[in-house]
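During the reporting period the student researcher (J.K.) took over the structure-prediction task from the postdoctoral fellow and processed the backlog of single-chain submissions. One of the processed entries is reproduced below for the supervisory committee.
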Amino acid sequence: MVLFLGSCTSTDCRETNIEGQKADLTVERKESQLFKAGSVEEVTGFLNHHPTLRDHFFYASEYPDISVLSSRIFKVIQDEYIDTLYREAIEQFDASAQSFEDRLETALGNLNSQFPQIGVPKVQTIVSGLYNDLYISDSIIVVGIDYFVGDGATFRPNDIPAYILKRYNHDYVVPSIMKFFIQDIPQYGVENTLLSEMIDFGKIYYALGVLMPCVPDHQIIGFTADEMSEVKANQEVIWASLIENEALYETSEFIKTKFLGERPNVYEIGEKCPGRIGAWVGWEIVKAYVESTGISLRELLEITNHHQLFAESGYKPQNL
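J.K. obtained the following structure tokens:
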């Protein structure tokens, strides 16, 4: 498949009939408190005062004693190179903080309007010396802001593949957080096929698009803008490849992973076709189905017959 480079310049928001009130969000900046610690004992005091950070972000249970973890953290904050990492993380987050809060307040507010049982978690930020990126629960979100400085960072995580690392900048943080809150709400398809699982993902990404109407598609699914432009320009070829390879009704987990799993590229379609392309196609099918039927978001997420959904979608990709 030949994919052509393009650019994504549209800043238009999607149409949505969801008008939730913005969530009342509290963002607690914890990095300065931690980095003021002047001893191992003060680090221990900080950790014990913030048990979520201690237990779920720094994984205290993996250490024989809290003092061992505190010693490790104190050594990090005393490292001569940490100043650069800390400064860049603070500068980047400060520059994007308003956008981060606006996006998350809008998304959580829209989510609560549809699913009131989901509360509004508090948010904490931390600089950990690239120890951890995100911790998310129903009650608290912890963002390791040093992970999300972006391509210009002096130091970047060295244990993350390049094709995933491209998502580690501030634009992708809120979509990643919101995926956690929405991913268990949709009903799964009853069919054990690639097509059904594509639509499983498609319903999640469609919901994210509704909850975050002004966040671009590529940030929601985790592509780069160029990857998204290439995919949209060649969607007929992508669809034809899935049909020609008789992949849609495959039940083999090995085959399904090729099109839905994390990979640099889906070489079975083309060397420039990004990984998880099946999830994007599933999203397009769901979009077509909603446009055809006018179904509500809640009704969509309750559907379990995905083969019927596909049949009624009238999905016919056209290159853009």
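The committee noted the following: The mean pLDDT is 93.
J.K. will present the remaining backlog at the next meeting.
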